[in-house]
Every structure is written in structure tokens, then in C-alpha cells.
UniProtKB/TrEMBL annotation:
It is found in: Golgi apparatus membrane. This is Exostosin GT47 domain-containing protein. Belongs to the glycosyltransferase 47 family. The keyword Cytoplasm does not apply. It comes from Papaver nudicaule. InterPro entries: Exostosin, Exostosin_GT47. The lineage of its organism: Eukaryota, Viridiplantae, Streptophyta, Embryophyta, Tracheophyta. The keyword Glycosyltransferase applies. It is a single-pass type II membrane protein. Its main location: Golgi. Keywords: Glycosyltransferase, Golgi apparatus, Signal-anchor, Transferase, Transmembrane. It holds the Pfam family Exostosin_GT47. Transmembrane segments: none annotated.
Length: 187
């Protein structure tokens, strides 16, 4: 895990943002995807892996997806067929900060698995600012971020017998906090 994190920390990230995805038609979610695709195509600071008929095989290849995400600071996470996206976790593993356009994409879906404060691991751009994605991202100070959303071998340690905190540990800690704050009355 440390080897991977160090590799992601040392990556040159010449692109401000990236998008791995395809346009959607006939659904409400299509608006933000179309906007991201348009802005990305017009920007020299965006890296895109267009999915769909052309490039579909690359979009299903984790190496190709990580190749795009690992050279970008921010990864666009537009809702797809559902609010949740595997791409959210791909971007975190690539050290690319996920950018959400709907609070349901991660904030309500994974509240037990991700840090309570979404600003610790992501950026949210509300609909009124969709027309200026690049401008909004340029306002955010540069920061290296490798969230703890990784799964480790159960016996892995980070030296001196301290166990790595991974996604399972975070989920259990969040569950424990939730139970402590909201005890279930015994009848």
C-alpha cells in the first residue's frame, strides 16, 4: 500500500482535471455530462477518455482508466446510470480528487465508508456553477491527497506492529461512532 501511495504522490499531474465517461441521452443526468465533455474538449488542462462505441474497450480496462486519472489533479464524477460510480474509487486510488455534481453520488451513498467531512476527500460543484468547472477548480489551492480508501491484507502493518487503517477500518469506526451517537434502546 505504501509503495502505491508513494507512486501516486510522486506522479506528475499536468492536467487540472479529467473525465472518463460517455454522454448520456434521454436522462436528466445528461446535462452535466454534456457540459463536462464540452468543457473538457475546449480546455488544454483536461484529459479525457471518451467511452461509448469508440474507446469502450479502454474504458473497461483499469490500467487505461488509471493512466488518465493519475495525471490529473481532479476527476469529474458525473452521475451515470445510477448515482454511484466505480470511477469515484478509481480516482481516489489514482490520487485524483473526485469532483461531484450531485450530493447523492457519494455523500449520501457512502457516509459510513468515507470521512464525515466531504471536503477531506472531494470537491462539490453545485448546478449554478456547472458552466465554469475549470474556473472553480483553479480556485482550489494545490494539495497532494491520498485518501485512506484502500483495502489491505488483514495482517499488513505499517511498522512497529501498527495496523494500516483501510476502508474496512474506516467503515467500522464510522459505524461505531454512529451507534455511540444513536444508541438503540433495549425494550
Amino acid at each position: 500500500m505504501v509503495t502505491w501511495q508513494n507512486k501516486m504522490r510522486s506522479m506528475d499531474r499536468p492536467h487540472l482535471f479529467s473525465f472518463v465517461g460517455a454522454p448520456r441521452t434521454g436522462v436528466e443526468k445528461a446535462a452535466i455530462r454534456d457540459e463536462i465533455l464540452r468543457q473538457c474538449a475546449e480546455s488544454s488542462q483536461c484529459r479525457m477518455l471518451k467511452c461509448g462505441r469508440v474507446g469502450a474497450s479502454k474504458c473497461h480496462n483499469p490500467k487505461e482508466v488509471l493512466k488518465v486519472m493519475s495525471v490529473s489533479r481532479f476527476c469529474m464524477q458525473a452521475p451515470g446510470d445510477s448515482f454511484t460510480r466505480r470511477s469515484t474509487f478509481d480516482s481516489i486510488l489514482a490520487g485524483c480528487i473526485p469532483v461531484f455534481f450531485s450530493p447523492h453520488t457519494a455523500y449520501t451513498q457512502y457516509e459510513w465508508y468515507l470521512p464525515r467531512d466531504p471536503s477531506e476527500y472531494s470537491v462539490y460543484i453545485p448546478e449554478k456553477k456547472w458552466k465554469q468547472i475549470e474556473k472553480e477548480l483553479m480556485k482550489i489551492p494545490k494539495a497532494k491527497m491520498i485518501p485512506r480508501i484502500t483495502y489491505t491484507h488483514p495482517n499488513a502493518t505499517n511498522g512497529k506492529d501498527k495496523k494500516y487503517q483501510d476502508a474496512v477500518d474506516i467503515a467500522l469506526a464510522q459505524l461505531s461512532k454512529h451507534v455511540m451517537m444513536n444508541p438503540i434502546p433495549i425494550q
